[in-house]
Amino acid sequence: MPKVSRQNLQEIIASKGGLHLTAYVQGSSDTSELRRKIGSIVFSALEQLIQGTPASARRKLLSPILSLMLDSERLKRLPSSFVIFRNQNMFRILQVSLPLEDQCFVANTFHVKPLLEWLQLNQDYLILTIERERAMLFCGNHTGINKWAELTDGEQISSQDISSTTRRRGRSAWDRNVSEWIQKELGKLPKRNRPKLYLAGEKSFVLPVFRKLRYRNISLTWAGNPIEEHSLSRIEAAIREELDAEAKSRIRQTFKEFHLADDLSLGCRNLFDIASAAVKGRVSKLVVSSDMQIFGKIDEASGRLKLNPGDSDHEDDDILDDLAQLVLATGGEVQLAPLSEMPKGWPAVAILHPAARENQLSTL
């Protein structure tokens, strides 16, 4: 089953108009329990659709979900956590490697805020382990780690039967081979947003390769110790902690940028103003609360915002989710933080493009 990724999330965010059902499900190995959970999704969707939606439209939307609920074999193959996306043209189930709260949303767009928070933490990284006669490249993120490529050396350069000069020449050739090989593998990566590369192994193996590498984002944190049986799992766990801390640090940095932007009239904390700026593509960065929902509707033509006390019908959605999607669709950056960490408890803060300030001044 495909996993949630930035690539398939782009298609999901691009879908607009008509009925969109999004269901987050914490799976279960108990088929009966899983069937009950999916039945609850159907019931929740019906509650949101009962007013203003013809019975034929409700049946069409929910039909594949009902079929899934009744198919025991398909239920057994579902992962431990997954998200259902359903509209008139799509029925997709994506795997997510994080605990989920069972939720169902019906609106004019898919509800993606929980996935944005997960992707914010789920940073990719690379580990290059270098040993005497073998080098391996691993790619990883919060979902796990996989071996990407491997290089082995046919020469037994550590043999006692060859001179130290010959061994040095062999080592030099091996260092060069590793450097050329890893440079070729790294060249397959996209040119933007390249993940951090961690080099691991004894320094006598790692440093010669490090000096030859042409790659900006390299860490030598794990250079210095030989690669042992449990080294990789220990390195993996430590890297995850480091990347989590970096993600939180980036949010704190964005808050500092917001306060500086606010002094220049480029900071925005009013939801009505943020909505107006978002539909015009004027938001450079947006931070929204990850654990708060505010229901209403945004007119994507005018940017007008209408707030409601609750989820009144299927056209209502979480405004914070809608704002996040609007900003992403226009090339802006979106981050999420708990409400307790948001500046002064505001549900959203935005940094506007400098051009937005110029437009404001031109109207004075």
Could you please describe the fold and organization of this structure?
It is a single chain. The protein has 364 residues and is of the alpha+beta class. Helices cover 42% and strands 25% of the residues. The chain is built from eleven helices and 16 strands. The strands form four sheets. It has a five-stranded mixed β-sheet, with helices on both faces. The protein has a four-stranded antiparallel β-sheet with strand order 3-2-1-4. Strands 10-16-11-15 form a four-stranded mixed β-sheet. Helix 2 (31-49) runs antiparallel to helix 3. It starts with 5 loop residues before the first helix and ends with a helix.
User: What percent of residues adopt helix (DSSP H or I)?
Assistant: 40-55%
Structural class: alpha+beta
- Report the biggest beta sheet as strand number plus sense, adding barrel if it closes: 5 strands, mixed
* Number of strand elements: 16
Strand order of the largest sheet: 7-6-5-8-9
Write down the overall mean pLDDT: 87
Radius of gyration: 25 Å
Q: Give me the number of helical elements.
A: 11
Task: List segments where confidence is low: pLDDT < 50 over at least 5 consecutive residues.
Answer: 155-169, 360-364
